[in-house]
Design brief:
globular; ten-stranded mixed beta sheet; about 950 residues; alpha+beta
Length: about 950
């Protein structure tokens, strides 16, 4: 949501500027030492100016109170807070004429160091480290003579750029956001979203620190020493900024510090806060699986309609675990069997129909927690411009959806490039926030040499970026590392249990569940007008994870629990990142794969140096008991537990390195959160014949066939896919074939079909006619498709499936995720689009109607009951309704856009995590941070 600037009376404005003058002390990063920055020792850089990157909107994510007030009154922004946004946005119009020489019009040079004459500031927080910032972007280049100093500098720079945001995220992870930042409904939603999946006591957090320190050998000890140095750096900046009164102004606006007296405190960071932040980051981007209860409900609905055998067959055709038509990252036919459907399932725990109830999370609501009331405080005149900036939450609702689309990668091996060296265009797609969740940095010190991004608060190492002669990146892979168990409930006195019982059978012993609680209370502040209130969050923890639902099975009460392999191991992946930053460890594709194998979360990792492109899929993949179906809940009995499972520390046997999808030297690689390889079964619905990965795969395959791939041509392929409507490119051809199977006699419908045909011929893009026009080419066709898609999907499938099954399937996989579908999992203005939807189902079904070859067809043909004429009539009827839908209905508008404004509805709007907002920019379905790399040499 965009927060609007306010208007002030002259008296109020005068008070604002008086306060600003008192507070606008020059930030300590603007050091007078800038002009005499010490010459850095040379660091090997084999990229030779052929590595570029970008991270909008800008590096600087901290704003003082004066900065925030000036932004609200005058629309100004702090230096380097928004200076990358226009460059990022310009690629939409500039892609067609892109050359290697023009790449730096849209990206920044990612070479190591800061060129002579480009130093903006130098900070020396300790004698053994300097933080040099470049004039163009403000990125910190951290160089230490000791390892402690290097990591201290990383933490200090993180404080300079992301102090407020790090504070938010440690409180989100701990389930304490409302007590920290206010009781806005969106704040309540965030802590209710994340804390139940990773509830910990302080002892639990500390145990994770100690486990890394004591069980991971020398690297574990080093990692925790690095983490402590990083925290020390954050705290050094925190205290210095507080004393110097140039700390983030949000602390004043939320009542933490008094603007006049400076009384108040910014709480020190602890090493356990890094575990809390890691739980949010890992849960958001590195999880997979866990949807088994909803899957069971849709299976039951299918069985109730068709009978057990046929219902299961119908359900499996929608589940698409290993669809042979799905786009794959490893496309050479190599198989990596994992999470397969067993021939004879054992232990499956389907609930009794109608018995499933979600577990209650929130209790004991008082005040605004029950009423939603607001009670604006009487703010001093000088603070009124910022009053209510967090009334809708510090992070707008839906911004961190558990189903957010994430990241893409395009790599071509050297045999198909113009230079003979691999080329990569890749980056994480982590949403659009202000500031971004990640921050750019360069780290140079003993055993560390890298530049790239890290999530703020856990930035001891670069997590995606480049080393001296290699680069790496990731996409979320989402394979199944979370299982759902049905624990049988009991009572310790032997009486009959109910679904409300708080004891369960664990290995035949009636065992108490552990109650995990958070009691949060809040009061209104200048920033958040939500009236005083409180509530209690409660989660029951068992040996099989956290309780998520209650139900009965065969009449017996059970609780469904969710068990994630990375629970109690939120930061163990630090070892893999440490290796990727260590030039003495990561030297080639093989060592890269070994480093990535030490990352426990579910990610696809990609690598390029001057010789090789490579891939590895990471994750703590549990070895399941024989016969267990990972797609459905399983009985919580020892026979069905993960092999070697130890509930005390949540460890088990995991699939070995050789069983993880991996590859070196394939002709090309693409990933857009699609499936990894044959027989590596998908953890959820939606991995079928059409996936947004096809937008990349088709283009890169064509480039490889032609040969001579360059950085510019691969970037163009990414950028073209970024503005293409998946439905228009991949499904519209079949829709048009059905429509044109007989003459369209209705003039209005024929005109609509012609418009759709012209749009498809032109590339099915959602792109301005000219820079700044804010009008799409083929805008009428785009509007028709946006209105038509949900209507045609429902008309195509719902009559045959029936309401209960159709609703159950749409609960597992939403129909649409176009950039205009603000009802989708990522919400409006979020950039990422077309990851989740029924495009694959529609495509298969229409090809079956048309008599085309279809691998793994659906169990029935749904459109028109399989008849071409009836299917055509269904499409024409829904198309007629779509054509008649007014633009104001298709694009209903919001507080950022007028009703009917197509471009604005799609547009990306950075979601403010603080007091600084940014203008809307063109929609692009593109990584947030992105690298374009080609190494011409190697060590």
């Amino acid at each position: 949501m965009r927060r609007r600037t306010g208007r002030l009376s002259p008296a109020t404005a005068a008070a604002v500027f008086a306060l600003g003058a008192a507070l606008l002390i020059p930030p300590e990063r603007a050091s007078a030492e800038a002009a005499r920055a010490p010459a850095a020792d040379p660091v090997a850089d084999h990229c030779l100016s052929q590595c570029d990157d970008i991270l909008p909107p800008g590096q600087n994510g901290n704003a003082t109170l004066a900065d925030i007030l000036a932004h609200q009154v005058l629309g100004t922004r702090p230096a380097h807070s928004s200076d990358q946004l226009a460059r990022y946005d310009a690629l939409v119009a500039g892609q067609s004429g892109l050359t290697d020489e023009k790449l730096t019009d849209f990206f920044n040079d990612a070479s190591f160091g800061v060129p002579a004459g480009q130093v903006e500031s130098v900070t020396t927080p300790r004698p053994d480290v300097t933080i040099t910032r470049d004039r163009r972007t403000g990125v910190p280049h951290i160089k230490g003579t000791t390892r402690y100093g290097t990591e201290f500098g990383a933490g200090y720079a993180a404080g300079q750029d992301r102090l407020w945001m790090m504070d938010l995220f440690r409180h989100i992870g701990r389930g304490e956001l409302t007590s920290f930042a206010g009781g806005a409904l969106a704040n309540q939603g965030l802590e209710q979203q994340f804390w139940p999946s990773a509830p910990y006591t302080e002892a639990d957090y500390q145990a994770q620190v100690e486990r890394i320190r004591t069980t991971e050998g020398e690297r574990g000890e080093l990692a925790m020493a690095d983490a402590q140095a990083y925290v020390d750096g954050i705290n050094a900046y925190r205290q210095k900024a507080k004393d110097g009164r140039y700390f983030p102004g949000e602390y004043v606006l939320t009542g933490k510090v008094d603007a006049i007296t400076n009384v108040g405190e910014i709480q020190p960071f602890r090493i356990t806060d890094l575990i809390s932040i890691a739980s949010v980051v890992g849960g958001q981007f590195g999880g997979g699986g866990g949807g088994e209860v909803q899957a069971a409900l849709s299976l039951l609905a299918a069985q109730q309609k068709y009978g057990v055998a046929e219902g299961t067959r119908v359900w499996e055709s929608f589940r698409q675990r290993d669809d042979p038509e799905a786009v794959l990252t490893i496309h050479d036919g190599t198989r990596f069997p994992y999470a397969r459907k067993p021939a004879q399932p054992r232990g499956t725990a389907l609930p009794d129909a109608g018995s499933v109830q979600a577990e209650q999370l929130v209790y004991d609501r008082t005040g605004s927690a029950a009423t939603g009331a607001r009670a604006p405080v009487r703010a001093p005149a000088e603070l009124r411009p910022a009053q209510g900036i967090f009334d809708d939450g510090v992070i707008p609702e839906g911004s961190l959806s558990a189903r957010r689309g994430m990241s893409n990668a395009l790599l071509v091996s050297g045999e198909h490039t113009a230079s003979g060296n691999p080329v990569a265009v890749f980056g994480p797609q982590t949403g659009y926030f202000a500031p971004q969740l990640m921050m750019l940095q360069e780290l140079q010190g003993p055993g560390i040499s890298a530049r790239g991004v890290a999530f703020a608060g856990v930035g001891m190492y670069v997590q995606m970026g480049r080393g001296q002669d290699y680069a790496w990146s990731a996409t979320s892979s989402g394979q199944d590392i979370t299982d759902v168990y049905a624990v049988e409930l009991c009572e310790p006195d032997g009486s009959a249990p109910t679904t409300a019982s708080a004891h369960y059978l664990h290995r035949s012993v009636c065992t108490p569940m552990e109650k995990m609680e958070r009691v949060n209370s809040w009061k209104p502040s200048v920033a958040d007008s939500t009236a005083a209130g409180s509530y209690r969050l409660q989660v029951w923890r068992t040996a099989y994870g956290m309780v998520t639902h209650r139900a009965t099975i065969g009449g017996k009460p059970v609780a469904y629990t969710s068990l994630r392999t990375t629970y109690r191991h939120e930061a163990d992946s630090i070892i893999g990142f440490q290796m990727l930053n260590d030039p003495s460890y990561t030297k080639d594709a093989a060592s890269f794969q070994r480093a990535a194998s030490n990352i426990d979360y579910a990610f696809n990792w990609f690598y390029a140096d001057s010789r090789t492109a490579a891939y590895f899929n990471s994750g703590m993949n549990p070895v399941r008991a024989a016969g267990v179906d990972p797609a459905l809940p399983v009985l919580a009995e020892q026979a069905y537990e993960w092999q070697d499972y130890d509930p005390a520390v949540n460890t088990a046997a995991y699939t070995p390195f050789a069983e993880h999808p991996r590859s070196v030297g394939q002709d090309y690689y693409i990933s857009w959160n699609n499936r990894q390889a044959k027989e590596y079964d998908a953890a959820g619905f939606g991995f079928g014949a059409v996936h947004r990965g096809d937008l990349l795969d088709d283009r890169v395959r064509e480039l490889v066939a032609d040969g001579g791939v360059t950085r510019a041509s691969l970037t163009r392929a990414m950028a073209e896919a970024a503005v293409t409507d998946l439905r228009g490119e991949q499904v519209l051809p079949e829709l048009l074939r059905v429509l044109r199977s007989a003459p369209v006699t209705d003039p209005a419908l024929n005109t609509a079909v012609q418009r759709l045909e012209a749009w498809r011929t032109a590339g099915a893009q959602r792109k301005e006619t000219a820079p700044g026009s804010h009008t799409y080419g083929h805008s009428a066709a785009v509007r028709i498709m946006d209105a038509w898609w949900p209507l045609l999907v429902e008309a195509q499938f719902r009559p045959a499936l029936g309401d209960p099954l159709y609703q159950a399937l749409t609960a597992s996989l939403s129909i649409d995720e176009s950039p205009a579908s603000s009802h989708g999992p990522t919400g409006a203005h979020s950039g990422s689009a077309f990851q989740y939807g029924w495009w694959g189902y529609v495509d298969k079904d229409l090809r079956q109607v048309l008599g085309d070859p279809v691998q793994a067809p659906t169990a029935a043909t749904y459109c028109g009951d399989g008849g071409l004429s009836a299917c055509r009539e269904t499409l024409l009827t829904t198309l007629r309704a779509a054509v008649a839908a007014p633009a104001g209905t298709v694009y209903p508008g919001d507080e950022s856009c007028s009703a009917g404004d197509q471009w604005c509805t799609d547009a990306i709007i950075h979601r403010a995590l603080g007091g600084i907002t940014h203008p809307a920019v063109n929609w692009q379905n593109r990584p947030t941070y992105q690298q374009v790399v080609e190494f011409p040499s190697h060590r």
